[in-house]
Write a structure and sequence with these properties.
heterodimer; A: alpha/beta; 3-stranded parallel β-sheet; B: mainly beta; globular
């Protein structure tokens, strides 16, 4: 079946995008990402340790940029300026790589996005030639504005980052999906496989997650579960579910030929 | 020469220092990183050309795990 995810002109087999944070070590990160089947993986940009051991392994040794599509993020940025600056460094770091995840946070406790700063950053980044996948609130008007600015994908939260609370407002997600001409991916808040399946059944083009896999008791097993959930949810969406009704006078077995 | 690197002050004996020299003296050769000098990105192609000056503020960043 050729049902590919298309983002900024490039196609992907996997609709599951995963983060690379919070794992025990790099080999567990690698094993979980392999089990997830993800092709797009997020990374953060941080100050390099100066004066540390030269031979210290790095994330890139375990996840070579030639094998994956890196999605550098702006996690930890609380202003448009910081986010833009971070992604310009990321572009230099990754040899002119244009696909980025923009997120501008508004509050260190909830990590809820600051959409005013996010919009300001999106405008600058799009003008600067970046392909911007943007983490956002589940406000349909904001999502549409981000599309109009020229973002290549909108990524509304299911619930707060790292909360594992699942999809709290499927109705807003449905409105965002119905109005969008660019891919809508759920980013943040997925807790377990059924949450990912529900996101896909709603018509999301993909799901991005980190903690749901990394904080599971067995991250590698959960990564495989998420892969199946995203695939199952996507197929259920494409298949078109039966309508819901309170009860049915139409049993599945024949009503004739009953023994007397 | 005094430089501020990733928020910490450091002194170097050299009178002239290129970004390339700095990377080598910090044992960061061959590492994938990006460098900002006084808020401006120094492209990798300019590492050997760009000379640092007293008091320059540098940010040296790399990719780490994140969501």
């Amino acid at each position: 079946m050729s049902d590919l995810l298309k983002i900024a002109g490039k196609t992907y087999q996997s609709r599951l995008l995963v983060g690379t944070g919070k794992y025990q070590d790099f080999s567990q990160t690698r094993a979980a990402i392999d089990a997830s089947g993800a092709e797009i993986i997020t990374v953060a940009i941080r100050r390099t340790n100066i004066g540390q051991t030269a031979g210290e392994p790095s994330l890139l040794d375990f996840l070579p940029p030639e094998e994956f599509t890196y999605l550098p993020n702006t996690a930890g940025c609380y202003s448009a300026d910081d986010a833009v600056r971070t992604l310009r460094l990321a572009r230099e770091l990754l040899d002119g790589h244009k696909l980025v995840k923009l997120e501008v946070l508004g509050d260190p406790d909830t990590l809820y996005p600051n959409m005013i700063e996010t919009i300001a950053a999106a405008k600058v980044l799009v003008k600067d030639g970046f392909d911007v996948m943007v983490y956002c609130s589940d406000d349909p008007i904001i999502a549409k504005q981000l599309e109009e600015i020229g973002c290549c994908a909108v990524m509304p939260l299911a619930s707060l980052i790292g909360s594992g609370m699942g999809i709290l407002n499927p109705w807003n997600l449905q409105i965002i999906i119905a109005n969008a001409n660019i891919p809508v991916l759920v980013d943040a808040g997925v807790g377990t496989a059924s949450d990912a399946a529900i996101a896909m059944e709603l018509g999301c083009q993909g799901v991005l997650m980190n903690t749901a896999i990394a904080a599971a008791r067995d991250p590698v097993l959960m990564a495989g579960a998420m892969k199946k959930a995203v695939e199952a949810g996507r197929e259920a969406y494409l298949a078109g579910r039966m309508p819901k009704k309170l009860y049915s006078a139409s049993p599945s077995s024949p009503t004739t030929g009953l023994i007397k | 020469m005094q430089l501020t690197i990733n928020g910490k002050s450091r002194n170097f004996e050299a009178v002239t220092l290129s970004v390339e020299n700095l990377v080598a003296s910090l044992n960061l050769e061959g590492k994938r990183l990006a460098i900002e000098c006084n808020g401006e990105i120094v492209p990798r192609s300019q590492f050997s050309v760009k000379q640092l000056a007293e008091g320059d503020q540098l940010e040296i960043v790399g990719a780490v795990g994140g969501g």
